[in-house]
Amino acid sequence: MKYDYDISRQLQDDLIKAYNKVAHLCWSQAEAYQKTVIQPAPRFYVSPKQALQIISPMVKGDFSRVELMRPIKKRMYYALYDVVVKLSEKRQFVGKSLFYILQFAVLSPAPEFYISPVNFSLIRAGMIKGTISDDGRPMKTEAQKRSYEKLKKKRKELREYREKMKMLKMTPL
């Protein structure tokens, strides 16, 4: 599944804003993380396309896929499902496609951030250490870059070898 870095960056920004609101009221950083993730979120941090894959079967009565999810994600999709049901009853959404409704549903306020305090602490640590870039993507270390360059070189050599073998098979003896 393709990852949406714009949504990821927005989540990070909104989490930091929520953290800054509650951090000064807490006795420990762990308590601040816990209180931050249960704050109301400005939106659901999932794309309409991703939500469609899960919500579509739910609308048809099949909750098996969502039941296999981890508790936090399960809560998020059930809350999003409730928003979709409420929106679909409104006059301006009657007769509209599920994807159309989901475009509005994911942008509606969410009851919480649907992320664990541990994951939030890792996101925050990554932002402080600089391992998460400004656009929300994980930054590659020098070792990862070198490894990637080696892999590219080997792929190029393999491609050249295959072309050479094709040429040898095609030439008459």
Approximate shape: flat
Number of distinct beta strands: 0
The description of the largest β-sheet is: none
Bin the helical content.
Answer: 55-70%
Strand content: under 5%
Determine the oligomeric state from the structure.
single chain
Instruction: Give the overall pLDDT as a whole number.
Output: 85
Unreliable runs: none
Q: What is the overall number of helices?
A: 8
Radius of gyration: 23 Å
**N to C succession of SSEs:** HHHHHHHH
Category from helices, strands and their pairing? mainly alpha
Please report the distance between the alpha carbons of the first and last residues.
49 Å
Q: Topology, please?
A:
Layout: H1 5-22, H2 29-37, H3 48-59, H4 64-67, H5 71-89, H6 98-105, H7 117-129, H8 142-170
What would your notes on this structure say?
- It is a single chain.
- The chain has 8 helices and no strands.
- By secondary structure, the chain is mainly alpha-helical.
- The chain is flat, with a radius of gyration of 23 Å.
- It has helices at 5-22, 29-37, 48-59, 64-67, 71-89, 98-105, 117-129, 142-170.
- 65% of the residues lie in helices and 0% in strands.
- The N and C termini lie far apart (49 Å).
